[in-house]
Amino acid sequence: MEIFNGLMLGLSTATTLSNFAYCFFGVLLGTAVGVLPGLGPIATISMLLPFTFGLPVDTALIMLAGIFYGSQYGGSTTAILMNLPGEASSVVTTLDGHEMAKQGKAGRALAAAAIGSFFAGTVGTLFIAVAAPLLAGLALTFGPTEYFSLIVLGLVTSMVLTSGSLLTAFGMALLGMLFGMVGTDINSGFSRYTFGSPNLLDGLDFVVIATGVFGLGDVLANLQNEHARAAGVAGVSRLFPTREDWRRMTAPILRGTGVGVVLGILPGAGVLLASFSSYALEKKISRRPHEFGKGAIEGVAAPEAANNAAAQTCFIPMLTLGLPGTATMALMIGALVVQGVQPGPEMLTQQPALFWGLVVSMWIGNLLLLVLNLPLVGMWAKLISVPYRFLFPLICVFTAIGVYSINNNVFDVYLMALFGVMGFFFRKVGAEPAPLILALILGPMAEEYLRRTLLISHGDATVFFTSPVSLGILVVTVLLLLSILSPNFRKVREEGLQEAD
Amino acid sequence: MRVALMRFSQDFALGLFFMVVGIVAGVIALGYPIGTPGRMGPGFFPLAISALLTLTGLGALLRARRAGSLPIEAVEWRPVFIVPVVVVVFGLLIERLGLPLAVFVLIVGTASASVRFEIDLKAAAGAAVFSAICALLFVKLLGLPIPMAGSWLPDFG
After folding, report:
1. Using CA atoms, how far apart are residues B94 and B89, in angstroms rounded to an integer?
2. Which residues of B touch A459 (CB under 8 A)?
């Protein structure tokens, strides 16, 4: 009953006219920017952040959720029509989605993705409504020891699930932690790595770094081979799935949703894992595995459902523990902090209208995506075909204004330029920046929890193994690290993630 | 303008970067109170992370010596230089010239990083219109506290 009341409260928050309108704008803007090739969700969200600054907290949060889903879906559209995945988790969609588009079935592929996503989103939202309060209750019993172990698990997962070598990913995570140390140490009031600059006392703003590394870094990387960028956009014809399509995609959508809901909760990179696993699962149990990779609608519907279900449930660790599961979630936390909201177990009890409003607006966002995207798909296709030389100056404008408007400080603009160059460097040397971004948020938390744990235990580190919850989490972490040594997993990881670049 | 970098491998460049950052950050952290594990000072965690980063960098350098380490592709330096510099110029101008003019400079400046850039009246007009739209959108509609005309243009403010 409590959940029912919560959902009603959420419904009344999310359906006020202005909140609904901002959710709609968020979805529209998120999709419009998300479909632009070379802009993943992180760059999209950070560019659109200033649109939420002047709004009241609940409205801003709801609009952010809209932007988040819009950018996710926009990425799938680009993946299907242009064979350009905006982020690693839509790589799988390109496999069969773009094949279908080449066969003139782009409309049906997009519809399959939209329908799969909507169904998965609905289930995911319900799952959040049920599981989040339970988990938030559980989280309140967690002490610093358990939190520290969870953070380690999250960081290790993100390292295992990025392309490139584990060593590189480890280094990137450490680098992110170091960047997180900049600023005033909360315990001692001591300034660390500020080089006497007052601009650095509050630390490096997370959104500024993410915008630099992903937004500007992508621009610099894309400008490297402008001549090679003349990719074609597939035309969109018939939009509605045939009866045969429905028959073939129903079960995959159900299975994909199940896979996504469960894997999405994992800290680290659950979304990515979800879309890969559900694709592999469908291929394995299909009666016609030879069609996969050649335009099988199951290969679009299942991973898209899994992707979206996981995108939904990865809000759970963020909302209940305050720990981001993915780099995108880390950015969402950064955006919430700008709004003065600290996600964590207390959010549900202290700001129930905010929490439930967000949950319900997720579902509304998914619904809007379905009604918005299919009719507007022609417009999105046009947007995609805008030449990059017209596009990238506008991307620079939005990122620069966005970063400036966070603190109205030009220092942030300079910082973004610097991190843009760094992001470019990381791409050139084959280091994926996702672990760095995640560690930037998780690093300071890790330090804080480690400090508290060791303060309580008088410097005795064995507590991490004597607390059952912490021990369990660390065992999972070790298993994950060992799994990378297994030749089977290694093969899947290399095949799957290599294309993500 | 494609300049082939010396035959650095990816691992070499990254390893070097990790090591330099790790050593510098570690040396700085040595100057902070370290404390004990039971009562960690502000230098404890940064020192540990820096040490690990230095070791990771060393690992990458060692790996770079093995055959099969990927070389860095040739870099087109023009955009890598122009775009960040223009962004910095935008930062310098936004409070002095105001949003619309600074945006105009940013658009034209970054556009010149493209190999297909040419002076084109129509594109310039487009940039001007877009700057005006940005000004209306961000300052008037969204109400962000950014000046329309900055301190260098007092007569228009």
Report:
1. 9
2. 36-39
DSSP A368-430: HHHHHHHHHHHHHHHHHTS-HHHHHHHHHHHHHHHHHHHHT-HHHHHHHHHHHHHHHHHHHTT
d(CA B13, CA B34): 31
Summarised one tens digit per residue, pLDDT across range A333-345 is: 888 888 888 888 8
Q: Which amino acid is present at A417?
A: A
Q: Which phi and psi angles does B5 have, rounded to 5°?
A: -70, 160
Is there a contact between A441 and A373 (Cβ–Cβ < 8 Å)?
no
Residues of B (22-81) whose Cβ lies below 8 Å from A: 22, 25, 28-29, 32-33, 36-43, 45-46, 49-50, 52-53, 56-57, 59-60, 63, 70, 72-73, 75-76, 79-80
Token digits of residue A219: 């621009």
User: Letter for the amino acid at B86?
Assistant: V
Q: Minimal CA–CA distance to A324: which of A427, A439, A185? A: A439
C-alpha distance from residue A295 to each of A288, A435, A489 (Å):
12, 33, 25
What ipTM was predicted for this assembly? 0.91
Q: Considering the entire predicted model, what is its pTM?
A: 0.86
Query: Cα dihedral angle (A501, B3, B8, B11), rounded to 10 degrees?
Result: -20
Tokens of A236: 């969109």
Distance CA B133, CA B103 (A): 10
